[in-house]
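Go through this pair.

…
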Amino acid sequence: MARPLKPRRISFSPRAIHFKPKAIPLSSLDEVELQVDELESLRLCDLENLNQREAASQMGISQATLQRIVVSARKKITEALVKGKAIKIIKIKDQ
């Protein structure tokens, strides 16, 4: 049985939930799902320039967990950019 997901503090709500390449209908694109906690980790580390320890503290998780979330988020965004996929921001289940 999987370990229960520890609640993560998210300090903002994204204004948009879809990002896609220009001039291609969303219906014809594959999507990459980016969880809101992944977006929050990128916001804190890359936009707010917090170190991982500070960002993890703000989210209420360990630094190791934050690192895994950041790596996952960056991989998904890179995949979307390189392969021309849409990005859909989703809420974490059970949060």
